[in-house]
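To: structure desk
From: M.T.
Subject: fold request, one chain
Message: Could you run this one when you get a chance? Sequence is below, nothing fancy, just the single chain.
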Amino acid sequence: MRSKQTEAQYCNHMGNGTATNRIRIAAILFFFSFFTYFSTNTAYAQPNGETIFDTKCSSCHNATADNGTGPGLKGVLGRIPKGDWKYKWVTNPAGMIASGDAYAVALKAKYPTVMTAQNLSNEEIDAVLSWVDPGPRDPKPVAGGTGPVDTKGPKADGGSGFWLGVILLVVLILLITVLRFTKINLRNAVREKDGQEEEAAMPFFTAARTWMDNNKTKVGLIGIFFVCLFVRWSWYELKDVGVYAHEVKPGVWEGYHPEQPIKFSHRIHAGDNKIACQYCHNTVEKSKTASIPSSNVCMNCHKAIKQGPETGKAEIAKIYKATGWNPDSMRYLTKEEPVKWVKVHNLPDFVFFSHQQHVVVGKQACENCHGDVKTMDAVEQQRPLTMGWCIECHRNTDVTKNLQENKYYERLHENLKKKYKRDDKFTVENIGGLECARCHY
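Reply: Done. Structure tokens follow.
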């Protein structure tokens, strides 16, 4: 029989033990939440101007004063209008031009390819402009500007969140260990005061199993937490399956330009000689694919043009070999050997994309998805081509004029005017452009 005093001490000790357990569970959940947050979201905790520039802007803009598809951004804060003009321009450039804004109209005149509206917060825009305004610490010019394209990957600063998470996990394990032995020592102190023998500490895994048996509710809550963590991680991993064929550097796929079997220069053909894209990619206006031109299309010109301005006869000789053409006898004599071109712009098989729908009906310029090809020697991917990027375009692209001019959409246009009670602006989203079945089948 315990004395009343001993009984009171025991009950008080057990109450403290319950409180300790609660504190321990709260600490576990807090540290695991903290670990999860920093291991998956550190990059987004504060806007990083360089990271956002690399992923959102570098495909068209240089971080120097040199122009690319768009203007070089060094010194940009001293050139653009003050106030909130920068936010309006980045998030809705087409609207700014349509409103007659003098600076926006001047940009359109100098750089015909209008920037796609960017889904960035004011803080993210400020971060980018603050980073590029004084000039980059490590310039990464793009094709169309001067200097090489950086495809070697970023500096080793992307894993800071992961390592912080590892440190927090180690601290958590140490905390649990300290709390466990503190509890054992407190219990033995009470036993010693009551004249009882010290109780040996159970092995860790035995103690853990016993605790789990006695705290099934808490174990269930922790299990649900880890299931949610796993589902979240799986979502962000699986959403990229089949989307990015070639990662230039972590999180960045723009800039991929594989070496081709023939050094065909779009700069010379489409830029200097002004050959229309549709001449070679002749199905772009009537098919879902733009098609890779056959070597016989090349021969329409190169039967006569036997030497290039930069590569001489070497690259044109590869075309002759592919078609079986003998330039001396001016006849097809040998067997054809098709050119094995390497595809640059890749979409997953479960995505439906029609060039005809976008070029003819949507009146989209090739540059909107492929960049300023006229300035490229080797064609490179200059847009992310992700689902988010496509959705952003569908939400911001004004198709009101297209609906008005295309008789096929006359009835749809009338229905939209009745539904929204306006006729000023309808986007692709308004005509069903965000329905899953439009792109996935």
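Reply (cont.): The longest helix spans residues 4-45. Let me know if you need anything else for the meeting.
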